[in-house]
Design brief:
The complex is a heterodimer of chains A (about 110) and B (about 120). Chain A is mostly beta strands and about 110 residues long. Helices cover about 0% and strands about 45% of the residues of chain A. Chain A is globular and about 40 Å long. Chain B is mostly beta strands and about 120 residues long. Chain B is globular. Chain B starts with a strand and ends with a strand. Classes of the chains: A mainly beta (about 110), B mainly beta (about 120).
């Protein structure tokens, strides 16, 4: 699986959009980009995934660059409950491929 | 909403003792995973089951760890004997059969402290 690089920490003001970057320059054509988050003392939670196109669901939006070497997770209106560690993971997908977690980005939402 | 169940939530044991964790995946999920998460790090896969068969246990320390999923439903992870370095969060996750979905659903985890 391709390796990902994320900033170790970020702050965002409550109510603003949180933009979390991820580099995955060695991603291959059949690999998906997944985002999970882990709120303190809980198990990770799936947020969103994408292959080539930008994706949006009720939690977030995922923007993937045209060359697929990087992506950005956008939380449009961050709340205090969005404070968590966010993991960007590249995997072949369909839920049956192991997830290789890095150390993620610790996002702190500031009141 | 269906959830992955794990027990116990917390376990304190002395080194050299045996310890076991239990996981009940979401009904109908064919794939089950055990991950270990050391404080400050991301989870690391220990073992993956497809129904009752192990498909990946390359990172499982087989001299002391064992895992089973006898009927292809719930699963048990055992450590014998426990060592101080085994202190970690043990997470169970499940997903649909290959090709049927992308998402892994995680349980709340079992936090193990070895003294």
């Amino acid at each position: 699986d391709a390796k990902t690089t994320q900033p170790p920490s970020m702050d965002c003001a409550e109510g603003r959009a949180a933009n979390l970057p991820c580099n995955h320059s060695t991603i291959s054509g059949n690999e998906y980009v997944y985002w999970y988050r882990q709120i303190h003392s809980q198990g990770p939670q799936y947020i969103i995934h994408g292959l080539k196109n930008n994706e949006t669901n009720e939690m977030a939006s995922l923007i993937i660059t045209e060359d697929r070497k990087s992506s950005t997770l956008i939380l449009p209106h961050a709340t205090l409950r969005d404070t968590a560690v966010y993991y960007c993971i590249v995997s072949k997908g369909f839920g049956n491929e192991k997830l290789t977690f890095g150390t993620g980005t610790r996002l702190t939402i500031i009141p | 909403e269906a959830e992955v169940a794990q027990s116990p939530r917390y376990k304190i044991t002395e080194k050299s003792q045996a310890v076991a964790f239990w996981c009940d995946p979401i009904s109908g999920h064919a794939t089950l995973y055990w991950y270990r998460q050391i404080l400050g790090q991301g989870p690391e896969l220990l073992v993956q089951f497809q129904d009752e068969s192990v498909v990946d246990d390359s990172q499982l320390p087989k001299d002391r760890f064992s895992a089973e999923r006898l009927k292809g439903v719930d699963s048990t992870l055992k450590i014998q004997p426990a060592e101080l370095g085994d202190s970690a969060m043990y997470l169970c996750a499940s997903s649909l059969a290959p090709g049927q979905g992308h998402e892994q659903y995680f349980g709340p985890g079992t936090r193990l402290t070895v003294t």
